[in-house]
Amino acid sequence: MPEGITEQSEVVQSLWNGSWIAALATGVVVWGLILWSVAFHRKRKNSNELPPQVRYNLPIEMLYTIVPLIMISVLFFFTARDQNYLTDMSQKPDVTVKVEAFQWSWRFTTEVNGKTAQVVGIPADNYEKGPQLVLPVNKRIQFNLQSPDVIHSFWVPAFKFKLDVIPGVDNRFQVNTLNAPGVYAGRCAELCGVDHSRMLFNVKLVTQAEFDQYIASQAGAQ
């Protein structure tokens, strides 16, 4: 798994781990029952006698009704809890990024303290050659997603979270970045046309001093 670069990514990873453990445990039980049935309830060689046919077993029927309900309820609880955290918009962001997805690249407009910096990309064959979104570490970032044409999906694998960019729909989310400077790949995760695979970008996490310098230089060039 990619290293997470936000606090939210750690919550997602924890939810995934629990889901995988539950799925594996369920698989082990199902595989065990299948193998047990094959081994002990098959028709024997040189015998015309069929294995015992069992129907209307109330305890078993209650078991395979109640247990899945309990499992689904537990998964629903943790999923709903973490989803509420991931979509929480109650706090004021330190930096706001307007993300405009279009066929087939991105426009990022970063706003902080009344200053803005804008980057417009073109289709790229490598995420390092796509538009670069510069963000500070240890800050709360809000993303406002817009599209003028078709449905796209804003995905940074290191966020471990993606959200659709839908024309006419105001999709937003916030993340708290970690102290993890570096360059991270981003892409569109929704098939959106002929150059969908080239709709690449990257996110660069930098220190606050580097970010302030970047915003000042970009604002001065506009």
Automatic annotation (TrEMBL):
Coiled coil spans: none
Entry annotated with the keyword Cell membrane: yes
Enzyme superclass (EC): translocase
Catalytic reactions on record: 4 Fe(II)-[cytochrome c] + O2 + 8 H(+)(in) = 4 Fe(III)-[cytochrome c] + 2 H2O + 4 H(+)(out)
A Pfam entry, by short name: COX2
Key words of the record: Cell membrane, Copper, Electron transport, Membrane, Metal-binding, Respiratory chain, Signal, Translocase, Transmembrane, Transmembrane helix, Transport
Main location: membrane
Membrane protein topology class: Multi-pass membrane protein
Location within or outside the cell: Cell membrane
Residues of the Cytochrome oxidase subunit II copper A binding domain: 92-217
UniProt-listed GO biological process terms: ATP synthesis coupled electron transport
Molecular function in Gene Ontology: copper ion binding; cytochrome-c oxidase activity; oxidoreductase activity
EC number: 7.1.1.9
Family: Belongs to the cytochrome c oxidase subunit 2 family.
Free-text function comment from the UniProt entry: Subunits I and II form the functional core of the enzyme complex. Electrons originating in cytochrome c are transferred via heme a and Cu(A) to the binuclear center formed by heme a3 and Cu(B).
NCBIfam families: CoxB
Protein name, entry field: cytochrome-c oxidase
Native source species: Planobispora takensis
